[in-house]
Amino acid sequence: MKNRHFPSALLLVLATVLLSIHRSEQLHSSSYSQTLLRIKQLLNFPPILSSWNHNIDFCSTDSTSSLTVICYEGTITQLNIVGETRAHILPRNFSIDSFVSSLVRLPSLKVLTLVSLGIWGPLPSKIAQLSSLEIVNVSSNFLYGAIPQELSLLSHLQTIILDDNMFSGHLPEWMDSFSALTVLSLKNNLFNGSVPDSLSNLENMRILSLSHNHFLGSVPDLSRLTNLQVLELDDNGFGPQFPRLGNKLVTLVLRNNKFRSSIPDKVSSYYQLERLDISENTFVGPFQLELLSLPSITYLNISGNKLTGMLFENNSCNPGLEAVDLSSNRLTGSLPKCLMTNSNDRTVLYAGNCLEETNQNQNALPFCHTEAIAVGIVPEVKKHRRVSKVVLSLGIVCGTMGGVALVALLFFTVRRGNVKSKMKKNPPTKLISENAASGYSSKLLSDARYISQTMKFGTVGLPPYRAFTLEEIVAATNNFDTASFMGEGSQGKMYRGQLKDGSLVAIRSVKRTKSHSTQDFMHYTELISKYRHRHLVSVLGHCFERYLDDSSASSVFIVSEYVPNGTLRSWISDRHYRKSLTWTQRIEAAIGVAKGIQFLHTGIVPGVYANNLKITDVLLDQNFVAKISSYTLPLLSNKGKAGQGNPSSGFRSPSLKKSVKCEDKSDIYDFGVILLELILGRTVKSRNVDTLRDLLQTSIAADGEARRSIIDPAVHKACLDQSLKTMMEISVRCLVKEPAERPSAEDVLWNLQFAAQVQDAWIGDSQSSDDGSPISPLASQRMTFH
Ligand SMILES: *[C@@H]1O[C@H](CO)[C@@H](O)[C@H](O)[C@H]1NC(C)=O
Ligand SMILES: *[C@@H]1O[C@H](CO)[C@@H](O)[C@H](O)[C@H]1NC(C)=O
Ligand SMILES: *[C@@H]1O[C@H](CO)[C@@H](O)[C@H](O)[C@H]1NC(C)=O
Ligand SMILES: *[C@@H]1O[C@H](CO)[C@@H](O)[C@H](O)[C@H]1NC(C)=O
Ligand SMILES: *[C@@H]1O[C@H](CO)[C@@H](O)[C@H](O)[C@H]1NC(C)=O
């Protein structure tokens, strides 16, 4: 019995075990395919992942250079996703936390490449759960913040590549916990502070690239890193001593730092050295001629230093030299014959020395012999404006401003018939009885159906809407004195005035004609009282003038803000009397305009689209807050009906929404044009927009230098490349031909705030907020990304 039962029991156990293995494997594979599909979704369905779907077997897909999934024994060990170069930042609803939470469900990952996917946010510490990770490359995203401490748990890491992100803070002391590290590449980030000495313990290091950050101070002693082949430190503040290095280097780039020492003799023993670039420092002392004949050297650039020494015609050079740049040093003697080849495949530059008989510009000999020239500190010559001139310019500005505000307000009357007709289709506005007028603002503000959240926040800073008394109007305009008269539009006269509290206002008087009832008038004031926002030239209130006999209204005075500080253009491209806005202020202004547009589209019901916005319609107040002065206001129609909103339903009908959608994007286009002008700093004519957009497009793809070369020289130095690029990208996207492809106001705003945030971080970082602006920088508004 026993014997007969045993095998069957064993079989049963085996079967159960097999079954459960099979099931767990199935479970497993379906869970990682779920994870991958979730990743695809979290990355907002990038084109590169279009082939991923529920039906594919991820482990047997073909690898390409941009998409690789490699499995080992049923788990994913390698995941490479490379998006389109210069990918846009993922939308606001992207969550790096959710993303990394999904990622760590692939715990066997050894190789992870997530490049150019628009990923943004601080690197979450739970990335450390990927404990098998050996190679990670997350270049060209928008990651920011410090390297999380928990990363130090990833002791198998061999390659860390964080290039082209916005990581900041110090490089942590614990970097040497990555004992297997061979590649550390942090190019183009915002790291600062000095580099920890612990790096000198990373003996396996082959490539160390810290280019283009804000590092400073001395380079740790790297002479123990006998495997180090590539050291790139360019565009930082390292110095003053030449770094101590092993002699296996192949590439050494120290360009544009603060080195001030001599070049140690040891460099002439770097027998593998192919590329040496020490340009744009203040290296002094003799230039070792042996460097020209190093056996492997192909590129040698010592330009922009103070190196001395005499060259001889009989000096020798490595025949493999492709480029030699000796310019702007203190070299004397004559150019070696070996450098004088006329071949096209070798560049030899040596201007700005004191060499004999050459084709390239040289200095007189004493220049190179004044050895003692200290690091020159050129006194900064600041231009002082005469006070009288400033006063004069202000006078003129106010003069023109009056005109602009007038034009702006006249728009109230001449804008767009189509809005009027669109509004007329909607049910009539809810009546507000006249004697409620003084309680207007609280009534309006409490009525959620009238006023969206945007508006509630947007009116912060504006005095509450109110009814003015006739006495106030009379006093403000000095009894309608001709000196206050600004002009006359189709619907009445315009006056400039000053209220008792000192604030400047514009007052328009609209006469009631026979075709209007007093009630129309009230509808009208009710309607325009909603056009109030921090970034609109807003209506402050109204005042009815009444007939004495029947006390019906004879006219209404509409009191609006008077914005005294000039048009946005006058601070950008048309600045005869002013200095121009800083880059930060430009972004702030753009954010203001975008918020104004967002309000017009979504802050009032019905939304106001197709406002035909121009940079000259954007005014700046004393605090450089941008305000849109010209937008489509409802008209007081002559047929006896004022333009009307739709307060009874909080939503627009779908058909209206649809038809509105494209109009929506015409404001976005106009906004793109304004951005163009903010970036380029010159007047943009509509016929040039396409050309300029293409120019921007090309320069987005170019390198930082080229990109900078096209922008307003006034902000050239003081804008961070990432910030500039983001502004350019959003401008280009606003200007695409197909309206549907233009971004939403939300998207625009998000990108602008992003540009501001990066710029802000950078300014804080480099402590160089003083870029010669006449205006103290606006209180920097740090935004949070969540
Ligand atoms: C983010 O919003 C877009 C639409 O704007 C939507 O298609 C996408 O699924 C959202 N993503 C997430 C992760 O919620
Ligand atoms: C990171 O990955 C991208 C895409 O594969 C590649 O182009 C880039 O060279 C990698 N970075 C480094 C430093 O190898
Ligand atoms: C480095 O940058 C951080 C912010 O990113 C800042 O708080 C810190 O003061 C900076 N340190 C130095 C030495 O500049
Ligand atoms: C040498 O370096 C300078 C400054 O970094 C650069 O402008 C120049 O083009 C370089 N020369 C060559 C031949 O690459
Ligand atoms: C090169 O020429 C100089 C004088 O013209 C001479 O002193 C020197 O010895 C020569 N060097 C070699 C290596 O021939």
From TrEMBL:
Signal peptide: 1-26
GO molecular function annotations of the record: ATP binding; protein serine/threonine kinase activity
Region Disordered, annotated ranges: 765-786
Record has ATP-binding as a keyword: no
UniProt cross-references to PANTHER family, sorted A to Z: LEUCINE-RICH REPEAT-CONTAINING PROTEIN DDB_G0281931-RELATED (PTHR48006), REPEAT TRANSMEMBRANE PROTEIN KINASE, PUTATIVE, EXPRESSED-RELATED (PTHR48006:SF84)
Record's bilayer topology term: Single-pass type I membrane protein
Any single Pfam family the record assigns to this protein: LRR_14
GO terms for cellular component: membrane
SUPFAM superfamilies per UniProt: L domain-like (SSF52058), Protein kinase-like (PK-like) (SSF56112)
InterPro entries: Kinase-like_dom_sf, Leu-rich_rpt, LRR_dom_sf, LRR_R13L4/SHOC2-like, LRR_Rcpt-Like_S/T_Kinase, Prot_kinase_dom, Ser-Thr/Tyr_kinase_cat_dom
Stated name of the protein: Protein kinase domain-containing protein
Domain Protein kinase stretches: 480-763
Principal subcellular localisation of the protein: membrane
Assigned keywords, A-Z: Glycoprotein, Leucine-rich repeat, Membrane, Receptor, Repeat, Signal, Transmembrane, Transmembrane helix
Subcellular location: Membrane
Sequence intervals crossing the membrane: 390-414
